[in-house]
């Protein structure tokens, strides 16, 4: 069942009274706008300040399809937990996990990436990203007339791995993700993190995501947390609430970070 989404501002006042929120924030499309080249998705200064302030008061997790090390580098905020590769790798706040079943896929992912790079060499705009446990093929900058060719090559490279059941493909915003076919997703990662940090379930999880892979987390948290789709209003989603974009996420975080005098100068500039 899909919710009739409401704007998150409808419950902002009651949310602000909550001192026991447990924050889960996706990175691309939530903390930074979607950009044409993934490495250019840089967290802006204000957003980082708000995240730092938020992490002083609450438990905060940044979760992403990006690999863990890259995510840590991009966000660069201490005192938060990072979940990379859709939660296959989790690190921070005293926790460290690489899903054991995922470790052995690295050489296979590397092989697929090399094959894709070789066969797509010379096709402008394609980015093949080896993320260790997973891989991505970004086609945002591929010319429309080249799209069918890229898709065909991608499908032929991954075909046998998908057919054998060892890998699966998920689609994001102008990206195909090659992921080990493990019974694990952002939703299960969120569940694992909650059990680890809040075994008695005292905190109220709030999850902000913008893409298809976040739907697993929205489903996991249905009925037990606040789920927020970031993007256009009322698209099909399992989230209960929405925000219109990164700017509104910033306003939300600002609301919760406010009151921390260390960050006062940032607030006055907004
Ligand atoms: Mg995203």
Explained architecture:
The protein is 38% helix and 22% strand. The chain has 270 residues and is of the alpha/beta class. It folds into 2 domains: 6-99 and 184-269, Rossmann fold (3-Layer(aba) Sandwich), CATH 3.40.50; 103-180, Alpha-Beta Plaits, CATH 3.30.70. The model is unreliable at 260-270 (pLDDT under 50). The protein binds magnesium ion.
Strand numbers in spatial order across the main sheet: 1-13-12-11-2-3-4-5-6
Note the overall shape.
Answer: globular
Tell me the structural class: alpha/beta
CATH top level of the largest domain?
Answer: Alpha Beta
State which percent range the strand residues make up.
15-25%
> For the record, what is the CATH homologous superfamily label of the largest domain?
HAD superfamily/HAD-like
Cα end-to-end separation: 38 Å
Count of discrete alpha- or pi-helical segments spanning 4 or more residues: 10
Q: Could you spell the SSE succession in H and E letters? A: EHEHEHEEEHHEEHEEHEHEEHH
Q: Level of helix content? A: 25-40%
Q: What are the segments in which pLDDT stays under 50 over at least 5 consecutive residues?
A: 260-270
Largest sheet: 9 strands, mixed
Bound molecules: magnesium ion
Annotation, overall tally of beta strands: 13
Based on the coordinates given, report the CATH architecture of the largest domain.
3-Layer(aba) Sandwich
Query: Rounded to an integer, what's the Rg over CA atoms?
Result: 19 Å
* CATH topology tier name of the largest domain: Rossmann fold
């Amino acid at each position: 069942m899909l919710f009739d989404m409401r704007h998150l501002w409808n419950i902002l006042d009651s949310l602000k009274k909550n001192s026991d929120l447990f924050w889960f924030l996706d990175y691309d499309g939530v903390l930074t706008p979607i950009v044409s080249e993934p490495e250019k998705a840089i967290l802006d200064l204000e957003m980082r300040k708000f995240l730092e302030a938020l992490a002083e008061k609450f438990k905060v997790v940044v979760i992403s399809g990006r690999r863990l090390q890259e995510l840590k580098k991009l966000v660069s905020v201490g005192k938060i937990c990072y979940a990379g590769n859709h939660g296959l790798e989790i690190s921070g706040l005293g926790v460290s996990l690489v899903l054991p079943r995922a470790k052995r896929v690295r050489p296979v992912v590397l092989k697929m990436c090399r094959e894709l790079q070789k066969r797509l060499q010379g096709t402008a705009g394609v980015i093949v990203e080896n993320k260790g446990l997973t891989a991505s093929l970004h086609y945002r900058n591929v010319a429309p007339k080249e799209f069918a060719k890229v898709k065909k090559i991608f499908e032929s490279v991954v075909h046998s791995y998908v057919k054998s059941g060892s890998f699966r493909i998920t689609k994001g915003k102008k990206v195909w993700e090659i992921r080990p076919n493990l019974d694990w997703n952002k939703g299960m990662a969120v569940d694992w993190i909650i059990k680890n940090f809040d075994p008695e379930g005292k905190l109220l999880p709030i999850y902000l995501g913008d893409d298809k892979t976040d739907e697993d987390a929205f489903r996991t948290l249905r009925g037990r947390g606040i789920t927020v789709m970031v993007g256009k209003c009322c698209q099909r989603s399992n989230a209960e609430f929405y925000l219109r974009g990164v700017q509104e996420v910033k306003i939300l975080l600002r609301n919760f970070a406010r009151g921390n005098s260390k960050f006062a100068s940032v607030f006055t500039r907004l």
